[in-house]
Amino acid sequence: MTWVLHSILKLPLFNTILTVAFYGVLTELGQYYLGFRSAQVSDFISDLIGIALFGIIRWSILMYRNRSSNKAVK
């Protein structure tokens, strides 16, 4: 979902991470109030880890491309 928001909708990386993390909180809160679902902190933590991994990988790719383009200009 993070990739979709960032790549297809062209949202900035930081805004995407915040939005998806907030969505994860809302999902767990919704599950807490449903009788047939249970909210789990571990599920939310795994959501955050996945979001953070995407953010780190995407940021690394952007920095690598930026460095490569700067070397080509010199």
Automatic annotation (TrEMBL):
The chain crosses the membrane at residues 12-32, 44-64. Keywords: Membrane, Transmembrane, Transmembrane helix. NCBIfam families: vanZ_1. This is VanZ-like domain-containing protein. It comes from Cognaticolwellia beringensis. The lineage of its organism: Bacteria, Pseudomonadati, Pseudomonadota, Gammaproteobacteria, Alteromonadales.
